[in-house]
Specification:
- This protein has a five-stranded antiparallel beta sheet, with no helix packed on it.
- The protein is built from no helices and seven strands.
- Strand 3 and strand 4 form a beta hairpin.
- The chain is globular.
- By secondary structure, the chain is mainly β.
Length: 71
């Protein structure tokens, strides 16, 4: 089962440049456009909006792409 996250959780994910850390901004449960990317989130297929600690940029990620970090 995929882990559930909440606003403020610190997480990490893989990028082409290596692991990146950030914070959960909110859970996405309906389709949304973030910059030029369409995020097909739904109640049955939620995604999470995360903010990178390195760049301050926001992006959507599927729960299985994220790993919760200890506070």
């Amino acid at each position: 089962m995929t882990e559930a996250f909440k606003k403020g959780d610190r997480v990490e994910w893989n990028t082409p440049q290596g692991k990146t850390e950030g914070t959960i901004v909110k859970k996405l449960t309906e389709p949304i456009d973030i910059k030029s990317n369409h995020v097909a989130a739904s109640e049955d297929n939620p995604q999470y909006l995360v903010k990178s600690e390195k760049t301050g940029k926001e992006a959507a990620h599927k729960p299985d792409a994220l790993k919760k970090l200890e506070s």
